[in-house]
Design goal:
This protein has helices spanning about 30-40, 65, 85-90, 110-120, 135; strands at about 1-5, 20-25, 55-60, 75-80, 85, 90, 95, 100-110, 145. By secondary structure, it is an alpha+beta fold.
Length: about 170
């Protein structure tokens, strides 16, 4: 299990140095404690009322699927036999996914992003929208991966205090 903390740039800039994305190998409830103990602030904090939460936080079953969108992997649909199929075969408008069908990212270039690159006249030397392998993605300066073996026992203990602006009804 991995928890992704995507910096929302609320209040301007990133909260932890160059990191746009921080992945912690733990459930979300555990990862929030580890995050607080490691960085000294609540990841659910709201630093700026006009900008919203500091981080978008979500839990993923594995690192490959959890990073796939940022790596420009293609999102596809599968029939009950595991074969790729068209979205309109797997999905019923207003009802959701058909029984036995599922969806997810695959390790290949998202062709829609290539079309966007061409339509927007993005320079050829730009990396925007191009597929990136997991190993290359994890080398990026703006990405931090904290594996379970790199988490100290004391970083797993404690609670996360409320900080920043707190929304009240």
């Amino acid at each position: 299990m991995f928890t992704r903390f995507m910096d929302m740039h609320s209040g301007g800039g990133t909260k932890e140095g160059p990191y746009e994305y921080i992945y912690i190998e733990a459930t979300q409830s555990e990862a929030e404690i580890i995050f607080y103990n490691r960085f000294g602030h609540n990841p659910n904090r709201v630093s700026c009322t006009c900008c919203g939460s500091d981080y978008s936080i979500n839990e993923e079953a594995d690192l490959e699927q959890g990073t796939a969108h940022e790596r420009n992997c293609e999102y596809v649909y599968f029939d009950p036999k595991g074969n790729e199929c068209e979205r309109n075969e797997a999905w019923v408008s207003g009802k959701g996914m058909r029984k036995g069908y599922h969806s997810g990212y695959v390790e290949r270039q998202d062709q829609r992003k290539i079309e966007i690159r061409e339509d927007c006249d993005i320079p050829e030397d730009s990396q925007w929208g191009l597929y990136v392998s997991l190993s290359e993605y994890l080398k990026k300066e703006d990405t931090l991966l904290i594996r379970k073996e790199d988490i100290k026992p004391e970083e797993r203990e404690g609670s996360v205090p409320e900080q920043g602006y707190v929304w009240q009804d």
